[in-house]
Amino acid sequence: MAEAHAAQREPAIAGNKTPADVTREICAVLDRKPSGLWWAGLLFALSLLLTGGAAVTYEIQTGIGTWGLNRTVGWAFDITNFVFWIGIGHAGTLISAILFLFRQRWRTSVNRSAEAMTIFAVTCAGMFPIIHMGRPWLAYWIFPYPNFRGPLWINFRSPLAWDAFAIGTYFTISLLFWYLGMLPDLATVRDRAKPGLKKALTGFLSLSWNGSVHTWQRYETVYLLLAGLATPLVISVHTIVSWDFATAVIPGWHATIFPPYFVAGAIFSGMAMVLTLMIVARKTMRLEDYITVRHVEVMAKLVLATGGMVALAYLTEFFIAFYSDNPYEQFVILNRMRGPFAWAFWTMFSCNVLVPQALWFRRVRTNLGAVFAISILVNVGMWFERFVIIVTSIHRDYLPSSWGSYAPTLIEILTLAGSFGLFLTLFLLFIRFVPVIAIAEVKGALSRAGGHRELSEARKPEGVRIAERETVLGGVRT
Amino acid sequence: MSRRLLIGVFEREEDILNATRASRTLGYTLVDAYAPYAVHGLDEAMGLAPSRLPWVCFALGLAGAAFKVWFEFWTTSVNWPVNVGGKPWNSLPAFVPITFEVMVLTAGVSTVLAFLAVARLLPGRKARLPRARVTDDEFVLVLEESDAAFDVARVRRLLDGFNAVRIEERVEEA
Question: Which CATH class is domain B2-50+133-173?
Answer without folding.
Answer: alpha beta
